[in-house]
Amino acid sequence: MAEIATLNINGKSYELPIIEGTENEKAIDISKLRSETGLITIDPGFKNTGSTKSSITFLDGEKGILSYRGYPIDQLAEKSTFLEVSYLIIYGELPTEEQLADFTRRVQRRSLVHEDIKKILHSFPSNAHPMGVLSSLVTSFTAFYPGSLDPNRSAEAVDLSIVRILAKFPTLAAWTYNNQIGRQANYPDNRLDYIANFIKMMFAVPSEEYKVDPVVADALNKLLILHAEHEQNCSTSTVRLVGSSHASLYSSISAGISALWGPLHGGANQAVIEMLENIRKDGGGSKKYLEKAKDKNDPFRLMGFGHRVYKNFDPRAKIIKKAAHGVLKKLGVQDPVLEIASELEKAALEDQYFVDRKLYPNVDFYSGVIYRALGIPTEMFTVMFAMGRLPGWIAQWKEMRENNEPIGRPRQIYTGYNTRDYVEPSKR
Ligand code: CMC
């Protein structure tokens, strides 16, 4: 029998349906609350608010479980490729060999970026933060591909937009970096796979042979898979909210890139390395930084620690920590920052403040250490996150449109002045 919640307001009771997901998580359906009671709910930061039903990702923050379309992320990170996982997330099933070959071919064929977009890129100052540049360039796609503007046009048109953004984002990201260091743009080499192509565009020096290191490619593949989707987080909710007005895929993803940029979200990977660097310059002691993080009068937070939904451990962080040690060893890189990270993690996990608040290292705590070892510059870390998160944003936007979800429009409780009369400037 369907469960029901009973709400009692001033002696009058209301029945609210309880809905249940496939993994038995439950929610009280309040969609008729206002029309029946005149009341709304308030939940700043949406800490207890489910905004949608979704069949893409399952996450259990208490148990540290994360799966995409039912497949555990550790299996995917171990055995799959980023493009295969993208297909899974976007279309719902693992592709057959043929489907994967066709998808790969379609993505590869579209990796070139319009020369006029390169002109826009080159008009940014070379020291512009790449996340701002990429958010602008992605939204510029609406001008170059006007067929993408109407998300209701046809399934084929939407699919073309999806393939285009997946195909061109690595090129844009690498060109943004090429531009930052004053190097001419490296063009895609479609003989290479998705990851190797990106690495080559990032690092190849024109007129010199470039061979992609398989250790670097493997590590990047794993990292992108681990970032590929994470249900209703800040940037994904942004993508869905923007898309709910029937804005195009590109403008929705551009908004997602902006949301991801903040240091409390994807920007944390850059902030973690900067914090670890500061600790190193400061003599390496983590105690001072732990005390700062605990001091309520100090805005400093231990970057890479804590998570809105993981209150036990972040399963992605566990895999990334192991990978970080492996990658550094394989590449023969000695990074003192890894030692500081390990010490800081140990000290925080033993500290009552962090224990009481269930604060654990998150996905961003060790990812920067790997990116550094791979030679990726700090300002590009969050771009790597965005590149990984693309399939998640796309799938969530697509699901929302296919379910014809209503426009997102939260309510509020007004706390301003009551109505008052206008006063002439001379009398104020
Ligand atoms: N350092 C020190 N104290 C912290 C931290 C931290 N990193 N994170 C949370 N707290 C404290 C916070 O001050 C609060 O204490 P109190 O109960 O005494 O007021 C308590 O823990 C709960 O924190 P909250 O801010 O209410 O929790 P939240 O769910 O709103 O925030 C968070 C989650 C990730 C924004 C936060 O933990 C944080 O700012 N972490 C650092 C930034 C970071 O690493 N972000 C990356 C998240 S993972 C990548 C992604 O998917 O975005």
Please tell me about this protein's structure.
With 428 residues, this protein is mainly alpha-helical. The chain has two domains: 4-50, Rubrerythrin, domain 2, CATH 2.20.28.60; 94-402, Citrate Synthase, domain 1, CATH 1.10.580. 52% of the residues lie in helices and 7% in strands. It is built from 18 helices and six strands. The protein has helices spanning 33-37, 73-79, 82-91, 97-109, 115-122, 130-144, 155-180, 194-203, 214-226, 234-243, 249-261, 268-281, 287-294, 315-331, 336-350, 352-356, 363-373, 381-402; strands spanning 4-9, 12-20, 26-28, 57-60, 65-68, 71-72. The strands form two sheets. The chain has a three-stranded antiparallel sheet. A three-stranded antiparallel sheet has the order 4-5-6. Helix 10 (234-243) runs antiparallel to helix 11 (249-261). The model has no long low-confidence stretch (mean pLDDT 95). Residues 45, 230, 233, 264-266, 268, 293, 301-308, 357, 359, 362-364 line the site of carboxymethyl coenzyme *A.
CATH fold-level topology of the largest domain: Citrate Synthase, domain 1
Distance between the termini: 64 Å
The portion of residues assigned to helices is 40-55%
What's the CATH H-level superfamily name of the largest domain? Citrate Synthase, domain 1
Radius of gyration: 23 Å
- Model regions low in confidence, pLDDT < 50 over at least 5 residues: none
Number of strands: 6
Q: Structural class, from helix and strand content?
A: mainly alpha
CATH hierarchy, class of the largest domain? Mainly Alpha
List descriptors.
52% helix; 2 domains; mainly alpha; Citrate Synthase, domain 1; binds carboxymethyl coenzyme *A; 428 residues; three-stranded antiparallel sheet; Rubrerythrin, domain 2
